[in-house]
């Protein structure tokens, strides 16, 4: 089993990122009013937003990978500072 990347968790960073990206992709499609299938369940967000094509999606992070993720899935990027992440981890 891969070594956990954060205290108090058994998941790896690669796994958490893949889950986040798949959920973000579903959310962006759902906000646009498209029917979405996620984990075998089909759904649609109603009523559809008056903003077109959908409300803006901002993606934040503190790494080059998070900026690339924002370019793929979002409408903007909110950069964070890496040291801030460590202050909120606890058991």
What's the topology here?
Elements: H1 13-31, E1 36-38, E2 41-43, E3 58-61, H2 64-73, E4 76-79, H3 82-86
Parallel strand pairs: 3-4
Antiparallel strand pairs: 1-2
Explain what this protein looks like in three dimensions:
This protein has one domain. It is 37% helix and 15% strand. By secondary structure, it is of the alpha+beta class.
How many distinct domains? Answer: 1
Q: How much of the sequence is in beta strands?
A: 15-25%
Low-confidence stretches: none
Helix content: 25-40%
| Helix and strand pattern | HEEEHEH
Q: Report the count of strand segments.
A: 4
- Please give the alpha-carbon distance between the first and last residues: 21 Å
Q: Number of DSSP helices? A: 3
Summarize the structure.
The chain is α+β, with helices and mostly antiparallel strands and 91 residues long.
How would you describe this structure in keywords?
91 residues, alpha+beta, two-stranded antiparallel sheet, two-stranded parallel sheet, 3 helices
